[in-house]
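Troubleshooting: if your tokenizer reports a length mismatch, compare against these two reference records.
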Amino acid sequence: MRLAVTGASGKTGWRIVDEARLRGHQVVPILRPNSQLPDGLVADGLPLKRLNLADQNALVAALNGCDALLIATGARPSIDLAGPLKVDALAIRDQITACRRAGVKRVVLVSSLCSGRLFHPLNLFGLILLWKRLGEQWLEASGLSWTIVRPGGLKEAEEQLEREGIRFSGPNQQESSSIPRRLVAQVCLDALELPAAIGRILEITSGEDVPKQTLADWLIENPTSAI
């Protein structure tokens, strides 16, 4: 498939790009005009699409011909408390609109565990979890074929990932724990390739004490989940 990845310069985004290429997909990395490239993305040597997500014409042009969009954009801590509103809600709406215009029907969104929760320490940063949930809701109501992936705390570790089992659940069932970003990227690609993942919110954490299970197997055992 030809896949677009927004937030491609981010710590999770470039790993999604990398995993997609390892699986033989053609990738269109989309990133902000002034984003610095991580070493992992520089090494790929891919042609990059630098644009403002609010620039509809530029975003539609980047998405044209793509089979799916993986959204890995996310607000970063800063003094701008409106950042989460802009990035985790309004920019999601802009990407949904662009997908409709470009004919991209399949979308996987990387969100966060505890999305929508009011009383949470993360909300000290511009009510980020509330804006993430609004972005999710707009995607759910978009008419697109969507999957929302809510990872726990994100880890940079790349070593010994084979020891980690992934704990899958439906929405609002996990509250803590963590997961390496590389495993998040792999789950996003798995979800993209599994029709049973469409219309699902997937919460994921991992640990060496978690039994190994694939997303495909978990979806068979859990065919529906209440939102």
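Reference record two:
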Amino acid sequence: MTAQVTRKQMRTVFAETVIESLATDPRVVMLTADISSWFFWEVKKDFPDRVHNFGIREQAMIDIAGGFALAGQRPVVHTYAPFLVERPFEQIKIGLGHQDVGAVLVSVGASYDDPSWGRTHQAPGDVALLDTLPGWTVHVPGHEDEVAPLLSKAIAGDNRVYVRLSERANSEAVPVSEKFTVLRRGKAGVVLAVGPVLDQVLAATATADVTVLYASTIRPFDHAGLREAVAAAAPNVVLVEPYLRGTSAFEVTEALGDVPHRLRSFGTWRDREARVYGTPEEHDRLFGVDAESLADSIARFVG
């Protein structure tokens, strides 16, 4: 009998990567707002001036991260997505963006990974909100093995980076790249899967004659990769993202501005509020991003 391998959660890999960076890079400072602070209790004994828990004072945490960046440090900032991006958005805009300093923001919870907490812990609009600000790189890993390489590179840099972790993951990792990875080739259209929705997309398109692209980095958007894929297939583009539906639709339009094409976007609703809380899988079905719903929608769209 083959022994079952226990997989780590993305959040665990994130903590291990930051702890290693604290030991090897004196610029790194770790800022938490209670969430996941327990990962860093031991390493704080070694670096008491570089590991900080601000409790539920997220606005102050972002402004202080900006201060660390102005002083030449590399702040890594972490909490649930709505408390990291939405609640302190003005501080992100001014304290980081307007001052043109860098930080690595690492969220957890994503759109509805932990729905039992209700709407307060959901942020399907986080990437769309950051799209209103210039200069952000956005990583959406779909597997725990994709987290460390993406995060290590982000920490080693000096720009503004958002790493969107998920409690759920695809069954297999894809080698990380800033370009879209071609997983299948077909003629009826192109399906772009972002991060942890890849398994649903692969299952939904198992018998479809479509090209499947995968992205663990969605900003900057790989315009050239999409153009190349569309040039070899029918100009039918399906965008499946694990957050607000149509978030990257404007990027598709930019990429294919001179190419007649059709676009269908999938993700969480943007025209009405979900007022029920079940399991993440039930939310997938509610928003139409489960494999069965996607298979039907994609077949009708490209067919």
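Descriptive notes for reference record two:
- The first strand starts at residue 28 and ends at 32.
- The radius of gyration is 19 Å.
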